Amino acid sequence: MYNKTKVAVGIAALFSGAVFAQQQQSIERLTVTANKFEQPIENVLASIDVITRADIERLGVRDLPALLSHYAGVDIVRSGGQGQSTSLFIRGAASSHSLVIVDGVRVGSATTGYKALSSVPLNSIERVEVIRGARAAWYGSDALAGVINIVTRDGDSQSVSVQSGSDNYVNAQGAFAFRQGAFNAAFNLGYEHTDGFDVTTGQDPDEDGYENQNLGARFGYDLGDYGVLELLGQYSEGYVEYDTSFGDDYTDFEKYHVQLGWRKNHGAFAHKLQTSLAQDDEINTQQHGAPGYRGNEYSTARDELSYQLNYVFSPAITVSGGADYYYEDISDSYSSSATPEQPASGFTVQTRNNKGVYVGGYYDGQAFNTNAVVRHDDHSQFGGHFTYNLAAGVPLSDIATFRASYGTAFKAPSFNDASSIWGSNDALQPEESNNAELGLRLDLQSGQYDIALYQNQFDNLIAWGNNGPENIAKASFEGVELSAQVQDMFGIDHQLNFSYVDAEDDNTGQALVLRAEKTFNWSVGKQFDKWYVGAQLQYRSDRLSYYRTDLPSYTLVNLNARYQLLRDLTFTFGVDNLTDKEYITNVAATDWSTGEVTSAYRGAERKVYAGLQFDL
């Protein structure tokens, strides 16, 4: 359990900036993911952050994991450099317990059960919405800890930019748009390359690089009284080099998704229909293998169809319901090279589907807000599951709103866990969670502030047993999150958040590995005429590695700046790890006989970047 005195001190320190208010700042942003339809963010009864394109440029980050790491309740653990293995922890839960969607489309590998965030090109992103807490009542399987919803560029901002820096880093990107009458189109494209750095100690003294080429497009047509049609897609390909305990490997990847959608508002009714295809292909090559060995190939195809209907009874009451269906198909190198002596696939089950229906009611009144959602999923491999979510919010004053919520969630085992011929378990049951949360939101003249207390209890947690994956574990996650966005305090804008999580294996009483108990992020920014200067501080407390060795705490400082050379031309500059801090992120290998660490993943040393951006 967390220390209440420390929490109280943290709250006092975080919110003390409110007394320096000089002017009223209003942030009116919409979110579409928490309840799957547009609502003002202050009406959403959940812990949520909306990250805009302006926020991405303000922070000066170079990839999606780095961006997410600046927000409350989110921790990123890298086992390597840019593009390499990255673990996402939302409130202490593992990567596979958070759902990632891009433009409303489920993405990621069905074999592993999660999305490789490093492969999502940052230049393609217009907005990211991070919802913390169980959301399975809206989205179905996987949303036990939260949802990361990524919205790609829509053409509102057009620019061309190029950046270069340490490790032969190059990033060139462009975003363009076109509108003619009822038709509109937007395009984004990018190229990113780095030679990388030597990511491990004690073995493979080499550079581990990364490359990503990507292209995206969005087309829309207004049919007038018949609604709006939209076609969009994103494509990326490249490679990533990495080190393992066996040696130097690399992965070639190709990923894309395509979506066709229709929406129409008709009086009190709002319809939304969409169909999509997402493909995730990887070829993993072991360079220490036999000559000519191509490596393992994995491919995930996911087809999805969904319909949602909203009905507005009154300005205060909305009912929303829908149905969705998705079909997953995996293939691997065994499938393409089958022989009588060799299995047709590395998986005993290669296809599965899920059908879901949900309905929810929402009341947004002056005295209180509330919503209730229930959902049923019918999974072809793991049967039926009911999930629900209940939430209520009460304005305590003109500036303070209290909220409370309780939700259930489940996750179907991945193909690797349930169907692989290499140590799977076809008797696995879905993982389940129960999530309770209390929160307080403050809207003051100085900015916005939020406090959240939560408890998430996991049952049937899948862990590696004596003979492969088993439902042997229970885990609990208890914590607190404090966040603040403070405008113009002493002339400087601040974004701060502090997170504490107690992540524990209930069977053993031990802390779960790779989870930092305490994280703190502080970003500041100041506009000086044509200059914008920003700085970020990130603290991570110590944690345990997979080998249960201690990984020390560390603090990183980053710096970024922008200078307007001309009206539409801006010079950009950034320094990551300004103090050149040496730190370890994970253990790569140990001596099997003694348990001594023989190799570890190191964090990136100081990196310097500079570039130009031309706004069209």
UniProtKB/TrEMBL annotation:
It is found in: Cell outer membrane. Belongs to the TonB-dependent receptor family. GO terms for biological process: cobalamin transport; monoatomic ion transport. Its main location: membrane. PROSITE patterns: TONB_DEPENDENT_REC_3 (PS52016). It is a multi-pass membrane protein. This is TonB-dependent receptor. InterPro entries: Beta-barrel_TonB, Beta-barrel_TonB_sf, Plug_dom, Plug_dom_sf, TonB-dep_rcpt-like.
